[in-house]
User: What shape does this take?
Amino acid sequence: MANEFRHNTVGTDLTQAEFEAVGLHIFNNQAAGDMPVATSATQISRLPVGTLGQGLKSNGVMPFWSSDLSLVSVQTFPAGSGTYTKNTNATKILVEGVAGGGGGGGANGNNAGMGAGGGGGGSYFRRFITSPNTSYSYVVGAGGGRGLYVSGTSGNNGANTTFDAAGTQNLLAPGGALGSGTGSLVSNSNPKICASGAGGVTATGNGSVAGDVFIAGNPGDIGVSASRTSSHGGAGGSSFFGGAGGGGNANAANANGEGNAGGNYGGGGGGGAGSANAAGTFRGGNGGNGGGGILIVWEFA
Assistant: This one.
């Protein structure tokens, strides 16, 4: 029968050389690269070699060659730096990264209604690498710190996320820009406007690879003060994963409006807001911290 493992035909008598020969046992139709497979409890048969790029898989009963990818594992890395090491069973990787979001500005509410700007969202990259290295260096950007209401300071920029910063497969996602505090007003007339943070500019990567995705972060919203007793901090900009932090609201009943932190990964923090309360006391609101970035590596065999 075809593909069975059998004795080779050497005649009616075996010499010592024939008995010890490497060709004494072969498969029918044997070719280089073929593998032995137990097709039953008593039979060993030939599994022909697969085609270029195929991997050996199993349906739970028998092994077979397939061109489909199987997910081996997923590695995730929060804000920080280090080295990614590929799973030994992985032959291809899909890399996603988003940068840190910008922090929202603080509103001091000093004798006026004040609304600070929201921070921008971090940008995003995605690349499928068919012949990955064993390891890559990485940096995952932290979210920008918030601005404080005490002096109406601006937030801080979100930090960049990089993958293999020194190599040919370099990927870079810029962080979201800071939201301005109330010390940096665009207009001194009513309604007063406080500048927002720009989103992280479009991510980049060395070399063009089919399927590359590079997305800019969304900008934050401006902060607006309609009057001394009514103001609104700008919302943060969203990243690829969303997560825009809401801006603070301040009015006579709520004189200090805190901006919300950027949610998810890479979302910009919301701007704070301040105004006078019913008793005429002025307060301000802190901005929200920007959301930290993340690196996700999907490993396939």
